[in-house]
Write a structure and sequence with these properties.
Helix content is 63%, strand content 5%. It is built from 19 helices and 4 strands. The relative contact order is 0.11.
């Protein structure tokens, strides 16, 4: 292990001194910043102040203004009006940036409160004003003379629990958690799942991409015929382990630089308290899945790099192996539509798709299927161990083979040597 760590440190230092790697390290967040900032500089998206008039027959005007202040309605001026319906419509349709909310006894009884908006008002205002719906609904329930417990029960609402045919029976076994929601980011606060899931997804993507650099490193050393010099001081297994550890650390450095630069920008642009959602216990499981995914693909790539004489002359077989990290894309549609469905479950059990599929599914689900997680993680862990062993055999023979790229038949023969 000491020699493996020396190789890891050498790979780390070598790449950190590489100008192209450094440029790419900072170029990615710079491009993200451009996509977020530049469009706002050239677009005329300054939202003008909106004048909202409210007819209030329920004496709830002060409550609504307090809610508006709590929501941060800096671009909305709220004013109570005593004008009649026709007069207010004339004001709204004559004056720009004007809206009228008519809260009357009649409309409350009908359950539909009209909102009249001038055509010049920005569409974002309609999203703002919807924050008043829930408080008005609660006031409507109180008017019916219901108890506080009855109001809370009704206010909690009713949601559809999607259960497909393949889920019936499987979710009723004793000890298994029933998936309660299949909707995209359904639940009280979607950011509770979106932020940790996105963080784990970024780490998986970054360290897998750095894992592909192992392929180039092994192939380049073989092409330059320095592998045999290196192997005079350590074993092929130590060289392979060192490369995997080194590029794993490189991927983590890349992630932390990206996230360190991106988080302040995202917090400023979207006003999201990311750290409140990020450091949760679920993040540990998501990161463990991402690390297992890296180890699987790293073993594949380091073994594959040892079978190639030159990256530019890679054959169809090597090209297909390099495409394996992108295989989960074929499951993306079914997972988004039904993250607990049969297709999503199958994707969770295939080693090459398991890491990405699991992270996406767990990001979408309100309640995690722990039995499926344990089974998929076990399959992935065993697959990592098997591929590490197989990659070690291929690497040991292939790194010292010169003159041509290895064929699938030759690789198969090395596995049984």
């Amino acid at each position: 292990m000491r020699n493996a760590m020396k190789v890891a440190r050498w790979e780390l230092k070598r790449n950190l001194k590489n100008k192209s790697f450094i440029i790419g390290l900072f170029l990615t967040p710079a491009i993200l910043a451009l996509f977020l900032i530049v469009p706002s500089l050239f677009s005329d998206d300054e939202v003008e102040d909106v004048h909202l008039f409210i007819t209030d027959e329920l004496n709830i005007f002060d409550t609504l203004t307090d809610i508006a202040e709590g929501e941060g309605w800096e671009n909305v001026t709220i004013e109570e009006t005593n004008l009649d319906h026709d007069s207010m419509l004339d004001v709204v349709f004559r004056e720009s940036q004007t809206a009228y909310l008519e809260i009357t006894e009649k409309h409350m009884d009908e359950g539909s409160i009209p909102l009249y908006i001038n055509e010049d008002v920005d569409d974002s205002f309609t999203f703002q004003v919807r924050s008043l719906e829930d408080p008005i609904n609660l006031i409507q329930l109180e008017r019916l003379g219901l108890t506080q417990e009855e109001i809370e029960t009704i206010a909690s609402g009713v949601s559809f629990d999607m259960t497909y045919e393949e889920d019936v029976g499987a979710s009723t076994n004793e000890g298994e958690v029933i998936i309660e929601s299949d909707g995209l980011f359904s639940g009280d606060d979607p950011l509770k799942r979106a932020v940790p899931g996105a963080f784990a997804g970024i780490i998986l993507f970054s360290i897998v991409m750095s894992g592909m650099m192992i392929f180039q490193s092994a192939s380049q050393e073989k092409k330059d015929k320095i592998a045999e010099i290196i192997l005079s001081s350590l074993s092929p297994g130590e060289l392979m382990q060192g490369k995997i550890i080194g590029y794993f650390a490189l991927g983590l450095i890349q992630v932390f630089v990206w996230i360190g630069l991106a988080i302040p920008l995202v917090m400023w642009k979207f006003d999201i308290a990311i750290f409140e959602y990020l450091f949760v216990p679920e993040l540990i499981i998501l990161l463990a899945i991402a690390v297992l995914g890296y180890l699987l693909f790293a073993a594949l790539f380091v073994g594959l790099g040892a079978t190639m004489e030159d990256v530019s002359t890679s054959g169809n077989f090597q090209g297909m192996v390099l495409m394996l990290p992108f295989l989960p894309l074929i499951f993306l549609g079914p997972i988004l539509s039904n993250p607990s469905g049969l297709i999503a479950q199958i994707g969770s059990y295939i080693p090459f798709t398991s890491p990405a599929v699991l992270i996406i599914r767990l990001t979408l689900l309100d309640v995690w299927p722990w039995v499926e997680i344990a089974l998929a993680s076990g399959i992935l862990l065993v697959s990592v161990w098997i591929f590490m062993k197989l990659a070690g055999k291929v690497f040991q023979v292939g790194i010292l083979m010169y003159g041509k790229n290895a064929t699938p038949r030759e690789i198969w023969r090395w596995l049984w040597m």
